[in-house]
Design brief:
By secondary structure, the chain is of the alpha/beta class. Helices cover about 45% and strands about 20% of the residues. It has a six-stranded mixed sheet, sandwiched between helices. A five-stranded parallel sheet has the order 2-3-1-4-5, sandwiched between helices. A two-stranded antiparallel sheet has the order 7-11. A hairpin with a 2-residue loop joins β12 and β13.
Length: about 350
């Protein structure tokens, strides 16, 4: 189990986490900032220069999941993780990866009043500047803030993104106003909330990661302007087509129809027509496999109004043109879509390998 303490920079996450491990039996502290610091040593400077924050590095997000899972496998018990996550897609990717490993996450949001938050940031900056014995107190790099005035300004700059993120964080986090609480009392409040279930397990889900090649079926649905329907998963970055893994003994086209019903609440009347067969090469840690895209036809406005999403799996949906799809989809999925649209126009089935037509 993981207790993930979220909140703005300066909200008291780390000090509270240190107190919490004293209260929860067999618990261990894991600070993902340590993973970011190691990446600063391991990655080429060119890659680090391309990001403003180590959270923007896909390798950091994956290592956070892998490290947390490895620590729990080694130590058991409870992992206490103090880490600010202000981008919903990053939170979803990390929590989805943990869910895939059957690791429950209790998310707690520390939410002091902004006036108190700013005062804490100011005081922390002054303490660190004195400790660093210099006016700058360190410099910021891809790891995040340095210390003193640098960290203070870095924290101030992230108050606005924190305000923007509050709505979606609060949806599935247990919120504590710790403005009048010291770290020890805040930790007691968290421990009690986890023990009683007042702080629930985050509902983001993800199917277990494959251990071999998989067969997956996606279905393209269109509106009357021939825009294609895409969905935004909660558990991984990038948009996607309705669809999923074909179960053993299940016909691929029927699997696509099943997924449309499960994900959108729509029942297709006809078996969809195959557009492309794409062999996805293995790319560790993924195993690849065959990816099929089917033409589910056009759905009218009335039918589109009946779309209902499973909130723990899909955040939203929309119809998009090909240009917008190129922006929303990861490159391999976009190439698959691009050729599926050409196959639909020509009335043919295309055979792809890694998104490139062959044969």
């Amino acid at each position: 189990m993981i207790v993930w303490i979220n909140g703005a920079f300066g909200s008291g996450k780390t000090t509270t986490a240190g107190e919490l491990v004293e209260l929860i039996p067999n618990s261990t502290l894991y600070d993902p900032e340590l993973t970011g610091a190691e990446l600063h040593r391991l990655l080429p400077a060119k890659q680090l220069d391309e990001v403003d924050d180590y959270q923007d590095l896909p390798i950091w997000r994956r290592l956070v999941v892998d490290t947390a899972a490895a620590m729990l496998a080694q130590l058991g018990g409870v992992l206490v993780v103090p880490m600010t996550l202000l981008r919903q897609e990053y939170r979803d990717e990390i929590f989805g990866g943990l869910a895939a490993r059957r690791i429950p996450v209790h998310q707690v949001l520390l939410r002091p009043d902004e006036t108190i938050l700013r005062a804490r940031i100011e005081a922390r900056g002054e303490r660190e500047a004195r400790a660093a014995n210099g006016p700058d107190g360190g410099t910021a790099d891809a790891r995040g803030p340095g210390a003193g005035p640098v960290r203070r300004q870095w924290s101030y700059d992230r108050i606005e993104p924190y305000r923007t993120a509050l709505e979606w964080i609060s949806d599935d986090a247990f919120v504590i106003d710790n403005g009048a609480l010291d770290p020890r009392r805040t930790a007691h409040r968290i421990a009690e909330a986890v023990r009683t279930g007042e702080a629930p397990v985050c509902t983001i889900v993800q199917t277990p990661e494959p251990v071999a090649e998989t067969l997956a079926a996606g279905v393209l649905l269109f509106d009357e302007a021939d825009r294609v329907l895409l969905v935004d998963p909660t558990y991984k970055p990038g948009w996607e087509f309705p669809g999923g893994v074909v179960e053993p003994g299940e016909a691929p086209a029927r699997a696509g129809m099943r997924e449309v019903t499960e994900e959108l609440g729509l029942a297709l009347e006809r078996v969809p027509r195959l557009l492309v067969v794409d062999w996805e090469p293995p790319m560790p840690p993924g195993y690849g496999g065959l990816r099929l895209l089917f033409d589910g036809g056009t759905i009218g406005r009335a039918e589109a109004e009946r779309v209902r999403l499973p909130a723990d799996e899909l955040r939203c949906w929309r119809f998009v043109g090909e240009r917008e799809a190129a922006r929303l989809l990861p490159p391999p999925r976009y190439e698959r879509l691009r050729w599926a649209l050409r196959a639909r126009e020509r009335g043919v089935v295309l055979n792809l390998e890694g998104g490139v037509p062959v044969g």
